[in-house]
Amino acid sequence: MIVEEELSTREKIILAGAQIIVEEGLRKFTAKNIGNKIGITDAAIYKHFSSLDSIIVEIINRYISKCSQSVDRAIAMNLSTEETLKQVMREHISVLEETKGAVPILCFEFSRSGNKKFFEILHSFVDSYKSKLSKILEKGQQEGVIRKDVNPSETAMLFVGLIQAKVFAYVMERRTGPIIANPEELISELFYGIIAR
Amino acid sequence: MIVEEELSTREKIILAGAQIIVEEGLRKFTAKNIGNKIGITDAAIYKHFSSLDSIIVEIINRYISKCSQSVDRAIAMNLSTEETLKQVMREHISVLEETKGAVPILCFEFSRSGNKKFFEILHSFVDSYKSKLSKILEKGQQEGVIRKDVNPSETAMLFVGLIQAKVFAYVMERRTGPIIANPEELISELFYGIIAR
DNA sequence: CTTTACAGTTAGCAATTATTAACTTAAAAT
DNA sequence: ATTTTAAGTTAATAATTGCTAACTGTAAAG
What we know:
Distance between the termini of chain A: 51 Å
Low-confidence stretches of chain A: none
Number of helices of chain A: 9
Helix content of chain A: over 70%
Largest interface: A-B, 56 and 56 residues
Oligomer: homodimer
Order of helices and strands of chain A: HHHHHHHHH
Shape of chain A: elongated
Mean pLDDT of chain A: 92
Largest sheet of chain A: none
Strand content of chain A: under 5%
Radius of gyration of chain A: 19 Å
Number of strands of chain A: 0
């Protein structure tokens, strides 16, 4: 029943660390706080990781790769351009719920942390994400499905940005439960706008 | 020529503190870092503020109020519902550029900081913002200008959220210059969607 | 001309941080 | 049965933190 009992300490450290960053911010990401959360001392953490920074690298890689894969999954489904783009959003939302909003928060924290290593990882992820999605958007523009006056690369960032906006609202309102209550409503707003036809 | 020379130390502390939080995160918000930035020692800061927390309260109040006012300014212009909403976005964007993205970053940082006082201030701001904008959106729905199937309160949060998303992209791409290069494009995407008609 | 208040300094405190070292213990390998 | 290893402990390190106290100089007030 209790799956957590089965997890290795290493795994528990990663999960507890991510949870602290997401819910309380980088400032609370300390060896002592992580240890407290999983019932070991701060020193014990160094039996599993060489430094706190190496925990962060592991956290970033793990969560970011989940997000990267969601674009590839949508492409692999071989849908129409419009449906592929909608599917990207659906996949994003599902990763978001699964990781409790971790990806955008991690991006936001570490893009400003001043740590070069963290930034490089995030930046190369964002770059590859943007180029993949831009290509789909450009194809959509050629097909006449996507408005020709929108910038593909800016709009690609709008996809993640919209997700982040929802995490922002979720955090600011101290909500519980799903971050995006109505995914199709959000997708519809992105695709068709808020203006009535 | 150099206006900064005219600023009081108190003012310099607030500006330097906000800059540190925005560019480097809460972890770097220390008395020493603030002092270094304006050329005084950490101890001197306590001649102007009773604690670091009181600096944060000042920063939040100052930046948040700028954002609050932008909705009121848009309403005061007595435009059509659609134009009022667009004007809100324009005002937001202008505050955003003026404050270099501070508002959404401050909101995000302090809604997760665990500090009750900070959260109260932010929460009451977000609440009042949301109710003001919701009312306009509901009016728009009655007039048939705004889609009836969008949630006014969720969509209100989308207005600030979208802005935050742009700050995210700005930070992640290490851009300089304006955060939103093409405000009308963003406004158009929010209002009319990315799908061609 | 003296006094006082302001705004800065240096020095220091207790608490917390990341990390290491030395020790314990239980399980796995030999 | 013994040895080794893994994973934990406590205790200690040096650095940094928020903040205070005691001191200094300068400029305005009396």
